[in-house]
Every structure is written in structure tokens, then in C-alpha cells.
What we know:
Blueprint: E1 13-15, H1 22-28, H2 50-59, E2 62-69, E3 83-93, E4 97-105, E5 113-121, E6 126-129, E7 137-139, H3 146-171, H4 177-191, H5 203-206, H6 219-232, E8 236-238, E9 244-246, H7 253-274
Helix pairs in contact: 4-6, 4-7, 6-7
Amino acid sequence: MQLASRFAPRSPILRADHPLSDDQIRTVAPSIFADTPHESRSGRYSYIPTASVLAELRGEGFQPFMVCQTRVRHEDRREFTKHMIRLRHASQINGNEANEIILLNSHDGTSSYQMLAGMFRFVCHNGLVCGNTVADVRVHHKGNVAEQVIEGAYEVLHGFERVQASRDAMRLITLDEGEQEVLARSALALKYDTPNQVMPITEAQVLMPRRVDDRGSDLWSTFNRIQENLVKGGLNGRNARGRRQSTRPVQGIDQNVRLNRALWMLAEGMQQLKA
């Protein structure tokens, strides 16, 4: 599954290691606080005010740690355009990882209301996005939507039990060098999926740990090395013409989420094969 919308690279974004205030959010993503839908919407459009949803979720223990909104060509849509919030629940934060709800919405009809599941590793500040094991909740802007919105948050939150079970199972699975290479090769194909494209980097580079804690041969450590190297980029390689180049980070929000989810599903596939 994909996001219901797309975010261009270098969209306005704010991340923090503490809950964001409304004032902080407003400076980056003012569309979250639109109090009416864009004038282009018809009377059949059911307005889902993100600010009200955020207030309700805060009352239930969810707090925003990242916000983003897409760039716009027409200034009149800046206050209504597509936006994203990543929220953590107080009960889901521990010393190393925090489960997150990823909320996507707009007030100009360019996307439906959507919730996805994610995971944040404090060690590398790199958001993992789970695959199909956790609910992907979409609410269209029509009919009675208020109850669906809050229920969707808890549907995703309860699904984290399955995510944690998968993560714990991956930590118990040991991969030999050949299996790690197969996983890395498959991950490279996910990122560089253009037919006949020459891979700019090797499997060995993708498997290279960036910190001591990720050197393990278990599936969870292997997956995290691959995920971080592909998403953050910065690896030295060569293009199809043999020229030196450094791999680019995945900056687009939509591309980041899509690649993360595909990598998670790939790791779960390996888990099932080894079980």
C-alpha cells in the first residue's frame, strides 16, 4: 500500500525530541490549523479538521514529534494543503524505540485522511515504517467521519503488538553471510527498481554497520543496517558511466514511506522463510 498522497522532496518539515507545541507546528505546517475547507470543496465534502483531531489525540495520550506539509504553487492553497504528523503514545515510548502513528490529511481535497504505523529508533533518528502487519486506516471526506478518526488511531495503536512480536522474532533469527547478501540484494532492487539500472553500490556496502550495536548477524540488526544505509545515503559508488558518486538520501516523504514499508515486508518475508 502507498500513501494516499505525495510529498515532494524538501517539503517544509520539523522534527524534535520532545512534543511539539501548536506554535511550533504552525510555523511549518499552517494547513493543519485550517478552520474551514478550501473554497473549491463542494457541500458534499465532509471536513475533517486536523487541529481538532490532534487535540483529541493529545487528550488520549498521543503527542506530535514531527510535522510536514507539501510545497504549493498557488499561495491560496498554502493554508489548506496536504500535511503529515507523526505522533507517539506515552505508553509506547521506551529507551530505544517508540511506536508512532503517521497521520496524513488535507483540507483542499488532494488526499483522504489516512493513518499508518511507524517506528522510531532513537539510536539513528531514522523512522521505520511498518508493512501490512499494522492497520492502514483511510477515512474519506464524506459522511460521518468523527468516530472513525479516533477509532482509527486505536486500531493502529493496538496493531503495534504484532509489530513488536515481529521485531522480537527477528532478533532471534541468525542469518549467515549468504542470507544477508540475498536480503541486501533484494533491498537494492527495491530502491533502484528501474529496469536494467546498474546498482551504484554493492551488497557489502549496504550491510556495513554505522555503529557497534548494529554489527549483529541477527535479522533485526541486518534489516536496520540495510534500512539506514539505503534511506540516509552517503555511500560512495559509481554510476552507469563509471563516474564516482555518493548515494542520495531518500528525502521525499512519500518515497521514504514507500521504501520503508517495502523493506519491512522484505524482512518479514525472510523471517517467515527462516521460521
